[in-house]
Design brief:
The chain has about 150 residues and is mainly α. The protein has one domain: Winged helix-like DNA-binding domain superfamily/Winged helix DNA-binding domain (Arc Repressor Mutant, subunit A). The protein is about 60% helix and about 5% strand.
């Protein structure tokens, strides 16, 4: 499994919003500047994430984007599924009917187990945990450069 730019950038977008959670709406141009992702590309990601209720928006002079739920309630699995689709490594894991060998295939069992492990890891990692990791890395970077 290889995450596309859509999935990777989507996680960065959501992490940026989580880092600013509780500070009010965040402007798209600010996210773009901090993350080095074009506003046009972010707009595409935001639309998908808004549709499923992970991001909220406010219009007007003090408008922008916010997480629709607290960071501890949003897992990476949710984000990746919205932006990438299925987390299964091969189609037959999710839909055994696509392969005549599904019932007797040892490889399918391995792909199924690997897909489940990936899913569990992404489910256990929430945005609030990522915020803690990011702030730790930022602090280590400051200490290292002094």
């Amino acid at each position: 499994m290889k995450l596309s730019t859509r999935g990777r950038y989507g996680v960065r977008l959501m992490l940026d919003l989580a880092l600013h959670y509780g500070e009010g709406p965040v402007l798209l141009k600010d996210i773009s500047g901090r993350q080095g992702i074009s506003e046009k590309y972010l707009w595409q990601l935001i639309n998908s994430l808004k549709t499923v209720g992970l991001i909220g928006s406010t219009r007007g002079a003090h408008g922008g984007y916010v997480l629709a739920r607290p960071p501890e309630e949003i897992s990476l699995k949710e984000i990746v599924r919205v932006l990438e689709g299925s987390l299964c490594l091969v189609d037959c894991v999710e839909n055994p009917a696509v392969c005549d060998r599904s019932q007797t295939c040892t490889s399918r069992d391995i792909w199924s187990e690997a897909s489940n492990q990936i899913s569990q890891i992404l489910e256990s990692m929430t945005l609030d945990k990522m915020v803690v990791k990011q702030r730790t890395k930022n602090q280590e970077s400051i200490e290292y450069s002094i």
